[in-house]
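User: Show me a protein chain along with its predicted structure.
Assistant: Here is one chain, sequence first, then structure tokens.
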Amino acid sequence: MKNYEDLTIQISVLKKSINLGKILQNDYPEIAGLYREGYSLSKIMDKLNIESAYAIDGIQNAIIGHNGIFGIEAYEGLISKEERKKIEKERKQESQTKFSKMGRYW
């Protein structure tokens, strides 16, 4: 019974963050620009003063979108999958460069 209750809670949290993602897209479309500028999810949360237990996941869902599972209507992300991959690659390269300058190598 405990495992079922845990699963129910986890699904509830996922649904709340998915719904929050759609709300954030409408209320804060500037999330996309901040993410493109290099802001992390937590920095976006701080900059926009988003206060929710589900804020980080909600911001991530706003950026990537939702595929329609859990009976929640699908929605497109603020940033396309292709662009997100490009941004992630650039950020990884920047991190590698930063660490190599500090004497650490990948």
